[in-house]
């Protein structure tokens, strides 16, 4: 067992959490070789009478280790085939899609569901691949086969999905977090993770940087009375990885990760997913930075453009969040006359305004003639209707809470000095955040993402952030007090 996974075990002990008894905590295996993996997974699966094992993957060729050309699917299937009957399904082939087109949408969720329902007597399911494959299988099992055994095997350290009981699903372009099936075990295979493309590992590191700002959103929402609950369990659980993560930032700017860097990143991602599951929501590691990322995804999904790696966007938006918190912490007095409040009609109007000005096509916006753009807008209008209804409904949920919170804002003002002091402890300075991004070679401006994001897209996403989801984030407060989110982010 890796020393960093041992830190996880110790953190649970410190919090008096029994990881064996708690179903929200998947068993975590850090395997340094495939012999170790074979022994551990066989031990788990041999308890089941039915020897069928279903593996879902995306069809992309992935090396099992950096010094071999053996495909990981072949490697895993061969190991399991010694004892079990392996059913492997290529989601790209089964959905007649390119593997790069697969994302956690309603369409691919249905395709995944069709595949698992065809296996009526299968009890064991494995997601072998990305966070997308994991989310799709995890949520489909939750809805259709809740008693099945579910195991995740990440092929790259990209997101927190591999150990959490939540999935993020695209509904009409609007990404929504959904409760999903608890994971029984996650296998982190060091040789496999070292062989993953560095841009994927780097993106996973970027996703982890949300840990240094997202708690500020939750705490601020709670002090305002928008969020109903707040606790710092997840903050404490993640604290054991704070310094190690900072120490390995520069390795993500290199061509290859050391075993130590892999173990730190894998353990931190595992703990992040578990911490969210234990909290009962993704709030501890998903704040303003994820909202900006979801807004950028909405632009691309609406125009059928390739998505930027999630972690790249989250890293860039974490810097924006850090800058915005610093701007907020400079405020001594609030101008109550500037405060905003909107009813359903107002919300509908402002979202219509945002949609009409949305740079759905990024750098290609200027390529369309006026007549072409009108035709595009007509086609988009029908597609965007469902998303607009979701945005309006979700915004009004928190807006109504704000209307109540405004009535007791004097209490908030009285506590403001103490609130500021605690926010400073919960969030990383923009200077420190930028240093981590630069060391890891993560983007510090929109045009540096892959594919490129235009400054116009990024500004739109920042300003649209209050309308992306029902849960509070810093953007909501900036908007409600009558300020411009882009100005706050430009400090």
TrEMBL record:
What superkingdom does the record give? Bacteria
Q: Which organism is it from?
A: Fluviispira sanaruensis
Q: What is the lineage of its organism?
A: Bacteria, Pseudomonadati, Bdellovibrionota, Oligoflexia, Silvanigrellales
Protein name stated in the entry = 3-dehydroquinate synthase domain-containing protein
**InterPro entries noted in UniProt:** G1PDH (IPR032837), Glycerol_DH (IPR016205)
Provide a GO biological process annotation. phospholipid biosynthetic process
Keywords assigned by UniProt, alphabetized: Cytoplasm, Lipid biosynthesis, Lipid metabolism, Metal-binding, NAD, NADP, Oxidoreductase, Phospholipid biosynthesis, Phospholipid metabolism
Which Pfam families does the entry link to? Answer: Fe-ADH_2
Example GO molecular function: oxidoreductase activity, acting on CH-OH group of donors
